[in-house]
Write a structure and sequence with these properties.
heterodimer, A: about 200 residues, alpha/beta, four-stranded parallel beta sheet, B: about 475 residues, five-stranded parallel beta sheet, globular
């Protein structure tokens, strides 16, 4: 893997979307999954919460000019539950979000984030509340996620430790998050495993 | 002392190709199912990188999410639906993948046709770009939903980079009362353990209630594992499983079938298997169950009153649900008015589901002003239902009888809620906006409960029809 695929540090301003169990239908309504590519997904995150039926913007952090350009999204528990649609992290990433800091993430969503090279890291409940308050009261605050040190630094030299599954951290920092080439390198071994599985040969004696 | 192994351990180990530098396992995927929605960019990436499909004979395709369930003439009125369908048709042609298209008698919801064709078998790993892939765990397979980039990995290598899960055994003991269905069982599991309670776990379902279930009921339970946060849910294969598979198109035949049964038996969890957690529930305590909120864990028994937000660990989440739904805490769920009734989805669109709904609808009429749809899960389910006259029962009662697809479960097709409509639905998600209207409201329940709600224009207790 080339060095430019290694993701060690993500820094930028932050915005918060509050609430537990925010599902992927809310992150991106299913009608946008009818597009044949991910190219325009960045226009759609939280669409139905950001715009009314006539297309008029509603108050929402993703519409608020004070958070424009934010690279870090702050969320609560079980963010991204529901559907396996990769369109959800794609929409956030293409909007400009390159790391998500939350209390917890749903399994498929977290896996999809890694596959795009997007970090989804966790901190405690009190810590996320404090981070959300800071991002709201001082929206120009720069937050810097360091996956090597497993820290999030912000404000005047403040820092806290973050958690991320070690395999996700390694995939991001080693640059192997785009896993196809790594898996493909073992294709010979894959074929060996396949022939040992009785159903692959129709249980012929 | 050495402990026995779970089905999860056995299948994981036999499908392990390599431990990767990240610490993840490269896991072989025995069966890959694809549909029109989550695959187009995966094929594009494959072409861009010059990869071929490694095992084209292990991928099967159909169309389900986007297809209309009424007028199916091509080109579809929805040009995006037409484009995605054409792209899938082109991709499967180019890469030599078997495809059950709109005209095929094998077309249907991907999680209905896999089992129906005998493609889904015990002891396999199975992946599909759809979170309800956990359905196939009913056969004693490790089946999980994946994203589009992972679909790319499966196409290119027939493997995935995966983290091993822990296993939680969930015993449903005792027996179910009349009018209580598999849907009520899984809604109660999620209510008890929470919508994120299964994070990091595979759910192994067992106990006398699960043992007695037929395969379609087990599929309903496993289907909604992901709604409880568990990527994988499964039932150990047994005589019910083997009997279901015998004679199916892609199941082994004759002496091969006998050898297969030997393998299938061997993958079941050992009697002394060690679990990371065990949960016991009493089936007799389960009532017909209805969701009142905006996630599948927000559910009550039909005789209960709606809970106060303070009763939850997350009162704000409950308040958000009340804000969207417009109900008041303390009100009964019984009598909640509905506008639409939907029997369908990968959770509850199989023959036994349609029979249960038809039993309630027979000789009765859908309440005036209620739009009621029955959408079979596959072309075969539709044909079998018509053979036994279920279509006539539904049509006489005033239900619409549609062709197979995902329909109003996620409203990527013309079947949608309008405005603030309330839908009694046999589907799996009551998320805000899920059924196609940002203001729409979904009450999840069993197919029989949906039929009873359709007849009354409100939530009723289906047991009144069964006494």
């Amino acid at each position: 893997m080339s060095n430019d695929s290694k993701i060690i540090r993500v820094a930028g301003t932050a915005l918060s979307v509050k609430g537990n169990d925010i599902d992927t239908d809310r992150i991106i309504p299913a009608r946008y999954l009818k597009e044949a590519t991910f190219a325009r997904m960045g226009e759609y995150p939280f669409f139905d919460e950001r715009f009314d039926a006539a297309g008029k913007p509603k108050p929402h952090p993703f519409n608020d000019p004070k958070y424009q350009g934010a690279a870090i999204l702050l969320v609560n528990k079980n963010f991204g539950c529901g559907s396996s649609r990769e369109h959800a992290p794609q929409a956030l990433y293409r909007f400009g979000i390159h790391a998500i800091v939350g209390e917890s993430f749903a399994a498929i969503f977290a896996g999809n984030c890694v596959m795009l090279g997007m970090s989804a890291v966790t901190v405690g409940e009190r810590e996320i509340e404090a981070l959300m308050r800071l991002a709201e009261s001082q929206p120009k605050t720069i937050f810097a996620l360091d996956l090597a040190a497993k820290t999030l630094t912000y404000g005047e030299g403040k820092s806290l430790s973050i958690a991320i599954p070690e395999s996700s951290r390694k995939a991001l920092t080693e640059g192997s998050w785009d896993s196809t080439a790594m898996l493909h390198a073992n294709l010979g071994k894959v074929k060996t495993v396949a022939v040992r599985l009785p159903y692959m040969t129709g249980f012929k004696g | 002392m050495a402990k026995g192994r779970t089905l999860y351990d056995k299948i994981w180990d036999s499908h392990t190709v390599e431990v990767l530098s990240t610490g993840q396992t490269q896991l072989f995927v025995g069966l890959h199912l694809i549909h029109e929605i989550t695959t187009a960019p995966a094929f594009d990436m494959l072409r861009e990188r010059g990869f071929d499909v490694a095992f084209p004979e292990r991928t099967f395709a159909t169309v389900d999410h986007i297809v209309p369930t009424d007028v199916r003439t091509r080109p579809f009125l929805d040009s995006q639906a037409e484009e995605l369908t054409q792209m899938l048709e082109k991709n499967v042609g180019e890469f030599g993948i078997d495809f059950f298209g709109l005209e095929s008698d094998k077309q249907g919801i991907v999680h209905v046709i896999g089992p129906q064709l005998g493609l889904t078998q015990p002891g396999m790993t199975l992946a599909c770009g759809d979170s309800h892939t956990s359905t196939h765990g009913a056969f004693g397979a490790l089946a999980f939903g994946i994203g589009t980039s992972q679909v790319r990995d499966v196409l290119a290598t027939q493997t995935l980079a995966m983290d091993r899960l822990k296993v939680r055994r969930i015993n449903i003991n005792g027996s179910l009362a009349q009018g209580v269905y598999a849907k009520d069982v899984i809604l109660n599991i999620i209510r008890r353990l929470g919508v994120s309670g299964g994070k990091g776990f595979a759910y192994e379902y067992g106990g006398t209630v699960i043992d007695k279930m037929n395969m379609e009921e087990r599929m309903t339970v496993c289907n909604m594992s992901i709604e409880g946060g568990a990527l994988v849910g499964y039932v150990n294969p047994d005589a019910t499983t083997f009997q279901f598979l015998q004679g199916r198109e892609y199941a082994p035949k004759g002496a091969d079938f006998e050898r297969a049964v030997g393998y299938w038996k061997s993958v079941a969890s050992d009697g002394d298997a060690a679990f990371d957690d065990v949960v016991n529930m009493n089936g007799a305590e389960i009532e017909p169950t209805v969701t009142w909120g905006i996630n599948p864990g927000q559910a009550v028994g039909v005789s209960e009153k709606l809970p106060r937000p303070e009763e939850f660990a997350d009162p704000d989440g409950a308040k958000k649900a009340y804000e969207h739904m417009g109900w008041k805490p303390g009100a009964p769920i019984l009598g909640t008015p509905i506008n639409v009734a939907f029997v369908g989805s990968c959770t509850n669109s199989r023959l036994s589901d349609l029979r249960a709904a038809a039993q309630i609808a027979q000789g009765r009429k859908v309440h005036s002003g209620i739009r009621a749809l029955v959408v079979p899960g596959s072309a075969e389910v539709k044909a079998l239902a018509e053979k036994e006259g279920l279509d006539k029962i539904f049509l006489a009662a005033g239900f619409e009888w549609r062709a197979a697809g995902c329909s109003m479960c996620l409203a990527m097709n013309p079947d949608k809620l309008q405005g603030r409509e309330v839908c009694a639905s046999s589907s799996n998600r009551n998320f805000i906006g899920r059924q196609g209207s940002p203001g729409g409201r979904t009450l999840l329940m069993s197919p029989a409960m949906v039929a009873a709600a359709a007849l009354n224009g409100k939530v009723v207790d289906v047991r009144e029809y069964l006494r």
